[in-house]
Amino acid sequence: MSETADIATLTEDQARAELARLAEAIARANRAYHTEDAPEISDAAYDAMKRRNAAIEAAFPGLKRADSPSDQVGAPVSETFAKVTHAVRMLSLANAFDAADVRDFDDTVRRYLGLRDNDPVLRYTAEPKIDGLSLSLRYEAGRLVQAATRGDGETGENVTANARTIGDIPERIDGAPEVLEVRGEVYMSHADFEGLNARQAEAGAKTFANPRNAAAGSLRQLDAEITRARPLRFFAYAWGDVSEPLADTQSKALKRLKKMGFVVNPLTKACDGPEAMLAQYDRIEAQRATLGYDIDGVVYKVDDLELQRRLGVRSTTPRWAVAHKFPAELAWTRLEAIDIQVGRTGALSPVARLSPVTVGGVVVSNATLHNEDYIAGRDAEGQPIRDGKDIRVGDWVQVYRAGDVIPKVADVDLSQRPAEAAPFDFPTLCPDCGSQAVREEGDAVRRCTGGLICPAQAVEKLKHFVGRAAFDIEGLGAKQVEMFYRDDTLPIREPADIFTLAARDAGNVSKLQNRDGFGEKSVSNLFQAIDEKRKIPLNRLIFALGIRHVGESAAALLAAHYGAWDSFERAITAAEVGNGPEWDDLIAIDGVGAVMAASLVTAFRQAAERASIDRLVAELDVQPVAPRGDVSSPVAGKTVVFTGTLERMTRAEAKARAEALGAKVSGSVSTKTDLVVAGPGAGSKAKKAAELGVETIDEDAWLDLIGTA
Ligand code: IVH
Questions:
Q1: pLDDT digits (tens, 9 = 90+) for 593-617
Q2: 76 pLDDT exceeds 60?
Q3: Domains observed in the chain
Q4: How many whole angstroms separate alpha carbon 140 and alpha carbon 126?
Q5: Distance CA 81, CA 294 (A)
Q6: 325 CA to centre of ligand 1 in angstroms
Q7: Whose CA is closest to 564, among 541, 587, 548?
Q8: Which atom of ligand 1 is nearest to the CA of 129?
Q9: Rounded CA gap, 428 and 434, in Å?
Q10: DSSP state for residue 705 in the 8-state scheme
């Protein structure tokens, strides 16, 4: 069957066979790309297969395979290496894209540490961001005992035998702590990459797309002798588990690693404050083309390791470091049309349909245009952007892509504007339901006011609801909910309808069974899959509700804070935006800001939305989530209130530390409070604590208690 055979003419058997063929071909392409680091087909061909697969699934929903490629991203960790659980997680880095982001990073760090404007500038290290793959090397008593790839950060692959073949990685080191995990990047130089590809081509073996793929493919060889023949190198830039501290600053730690025999990047430099960091960025960027290996940015790290410790980590990235990426890749193409998509929260998002163009190795045919101001050439404050040039259908536009970021239209070439091109008329009615689309004061986004009556919003909400991080119901994906939404006999118009589907389908002959693509077996599988998800953890449910600003991690924080649906529901229903104890309690959760809290509280107060939530919950068995007290620490599971001025840390830091230790931090004192930490100037809260007989201690006693005095 040809890849372009018209889907409308496929018989059911042909469609089944075609889905099987595509599942195989896509799995093979995934393996080649992710596991073997040797892409066999172009990104465009891969995308075309995924699209065709999705289109056939949409036409024949009942034929969707359990292993459907639509439900998969990438490839799992290769099964061929033993797994290694990292003693200390291998983190990734947050990104900065311009000087303003770098200054913001410094500001945020300073604020977190409670530094004032007239305090001296902070020292950071700046070093190239090597475009390879990270590796963790464990030394015990000075001997290399294990090498592991990053994997998902928690678990990597054991590649010890292969790492031993790399010249830059010492087998034995002197003067190291008893246990030392050295972390850094494995990479291949440009010259070695060219040479390897030439040899591969000559031998009729596969060649690599770029040095990074070549390095990854070479390190992850089952036969270490193959790795030995590959010219890999290693830069050390960090460490994991250590039995005693390496030094008191990042710079000194790197010097020590160098003395032990590791290669540390020579462009690493200590910089005092953001302006010095940016100057080093410019120097590194100027040398980029002549370094002889790929780098994709500059990494800044707070130099003082005690400050690093205080700053700590977010879920996957440290607060004390940031990667300043080199500018994104650009290309020019024709803007063919502007479509408006209506999202789950009613946002009208303009999407550029482009004449396909390759940007940094990826074929791009859609890009974001952000919002109506962006199209008109204005920023949020009404100031001109792109010198005030607006964007019109037919324009010759510049497309920009940075890393994984969604491509965007960045610029317009006015000299190529067709005479008939007219300014874009941004709709003020929802293109889907015709309701007014309005912009609230201060919001760059125009939103459909149709709420649940807007089919686009309802469908997007349902898609979100069945998404991976939400209910993740097998056999009920985005395509199926779209089909069910438009169904008249057995519709799913809101989440609760999913759980009443089986009851509504009851009867002598199931309505579903008579439908295209649904057999007896697939219907019963679907109902079973739905039933299995009635039992749902609270965090998933909160996320699944699709409330604006409440993402996956916020949902987890809310669930951990409230524990069970009843207490969550009671508290949010009682909360009033901007005041009262429930509101204070809500915004005292680390990671929950006023904007998110207001969105949540408002959603619960909208009658139609609230009724829809209640109908849903009536169908479910919501599983409570254990508070974050599993951590063993003297304050785990305790409710702590900070009040007054803290002198040795900021409020944000105190809260983050306490929560990391399993405590719940609250903004107000009540009978549920276990401990009040009162600094100078503590007022009504300390008084209330005394009245209620709640234990009250000062900041030093707190630090003693948590073991960091
Ligand atoms: S530090 C806790 N320094 O970039 C911070 N990472 O995007 C750990 N990388 O996974 C990383 N050069 O593979 C650091 N000089 C450098 C780096 C570097 C490349 C990689 C590393 C990391 C990724 C994060």
A1: 888 999 999 999 999 999 999 999 9
A2: no
A3: 7-72+329-416 (2.40.50.140), 83-325 (3.30.470.30), 537-623 (1.10.150.20), 639-706 (3.40.50.10190)
A4: 29
A5: 27
A6: 12
A7: 541
A8: 12
A9: 9
A10: H
pLDDT given for residue 2 in this prediction: 47
- Residue pair 394/334 in contact (Cβ under 8 Å)? The answer is yes
Say what the pLDDT of residue 379 is.
Answer: 84
As a whole number of angstroms, the distance between CA 87 and CA 224 comes to 25
Nearest-10 Cα torsion for 466, 468, 469, 474: 60
- Selected residue with higher pLDDT from 174 and 30: 174
Annotate 124-185 with DSSP letters as a single string. EEEEEEESSEEEEEEEETTEEEEEEE-TTSSEEEB-HHHHTT-TTS-SB-SS--SEEEEEEE
- Ligand 1 centroid – CA 129 distance (Å): 6
H/E segment holding residue 593: none
Helix (H, G, I), strand (E, B) or coil at 438: strand
Catalytic residues: 129
Q: What is the pLDDT of residues 99-112, one digit of tens each?
A: 999 999 999 999 99
pLDDT, tens digit, for every residue of 535-565? 999 999 999 999 999 988 789 889 999 999 9
Pairing relationship of beta strands 362-368 and 348-359 according to DSSP bridges: antiparallel
Backbone angles phi, psi at 438, to 5 degrees: -120, 155
Q: Which tokens in the block code for residue 141?
A: 């008593």
Pocket of ligand 1 (CB under 6 A): 91-93, 127, 129-130, 134, 150, 185, 237-238, 299, 318, 321, 323
Structure tokens at 156: 């990597």
Which of 125, 234, 237 has the most ligand 1 atoms within 8 A of CB, as the residue to mutate? 237
Q: Which H helix or E strand runs over 615?
A: helix 607-618
| C-alpha torsion sign, points 268, 269, 270, 273 | negative
